[in-house]
Write a structure and sequence with these properties.
Distance between the termini: 45 Å
Helix content: 25-40%
Mean pLDDT: 92
Largest sheet: 5 strands, antiparallel
Strand order of the largest sheet: 1-2-3-5-4
Bound molecules: adenosine-5'-diphosphate, magnesium ion
Length: 269
């Protein structure tokens, strides 16, 4: 804990990854809690830019459904990103807590509308998130959903969008990525489709015992049907978001304004 971070006291470590760690802190003057993501900065110049990009892109986002950026600072080969603390934890944990108790349609749609609003804001800034999954979506104490973890985000149409070496959990990756095509805004829509499906069934839409069969299922867009008690419009929405050709997939703007979806949201929220 260095001098630059002296205004915060450490409460506990809440996450540890390859990048470094995420810690819960308290601001000494205001007593407010924040999360600090502490990232080990690489010596290599281009990798250094990658690490800084997360802080830069997050700092540009200001939206009720995106984790709020507070400040960032650098010292001794460490980068600290200070952000809003979402005390409800991540959505994956929340889904696991449900065991086999389904979420209500109202709850699913509320969270889905919130994550789409956050993601639309990201796309409106010409940024792609590229790692949307239930583990990177956080809940506040009042149950609002916020998108976080901009560690894989990039600016649309930058050369970086092509150089996407995939690391991490493969369940949310769109078919075009397996086909070595560039990441685009519709690839984020696919990933949100996976989260919507998870909220509806508490399972991943595409699951298999090997990478090869997983990729095959994703590229065919073959997923088990949603439970039939769910409204038809929700089944239709999932089907649209899992179109294997990204051109056929709706944009977030279309999802949030289409007649069918807005009607669904109106009747349930
Ligand atoms: P990475 O996935 O790159 O390791 P994340 O930014 O996703 O880093 O953070 C790692 C973990 O720390 C998250 O899965 C979550 O459990 C916790 N975490 C991160 N940011 C927050 C936050 N703003 N509020 C609450 N928990 C957070
Ligand atoms: Mg993460």
């Amino acid at each position: 804990w260095r001098r630059s971070m002296e205004k915060y006291s450490l409460v506990k470590v809440i996450g540890e990854g390859s990048f470094g760690r995420a810690v819960l802190v308290r601001c000494k003057s205001s007593q407010e809690k924040y999360v600090v993501k502490e990232i080990q900065l690489p010596k290599n110049q281009s990798k250094l830019e990658n690490s800084r990009r997360e802080a830069i892109l997050l700092s540009r986002m200001k939206h009720p459904n995106i984790v709020a950026f507070r400040e960032a600072c650098e010292a001794d080969e460490l980068l600290w990103i200070v952000m809003e603390y979402c005390s409800g934890g991540d959505l994956l944990q929340r889904i696991k807590q449900q065991k086999s108790n389904q979420f209500s349609v109202d709850n699913i749609l509320k969270w889905f509308a919130e994550m789409c609003a956050g993601a639309k804001h990201i796309h409106d800034q010409r940024v792609l998130h590229r790692d949307l999954k239930s583990k990177n979506i956080f809940l506040t104490d009042n149950g609002t959903v916020k998108l976080g973890d901009f560690g894989s985000a990039c600016i649309l149409n930058s050369s970086k969008a092509y150089a996407h070496a995939y690391v991490g959990t493969p369940y949310y990756v769109a078919p075009e990525i397996w086909d070595n095509k560039p990441y685009n805004n519709k690839s984020d829509v696919w990933s949100l489709g996976c989260v919507l499906y998870e909220l509806c069934t508490l399972r991943h839409p595409f699951q298999a015992s090997s990478w090869k069969s997983l990729i095959l299922k994703v590229c065919r867009g073959a997923y088990p049907p949603l439970p039939s008690h769910l409204p038809y419009e929700l089944q239709y929405l999932v089907k649209q978001m899992f179109k294997t050709n990204p051109k056929d997939r709706p944009s977030l703007h279309t999802i949030l304004t289409s007649h069918r979806v807005s009607k669904l949201l109106r009747t349930h929220l």
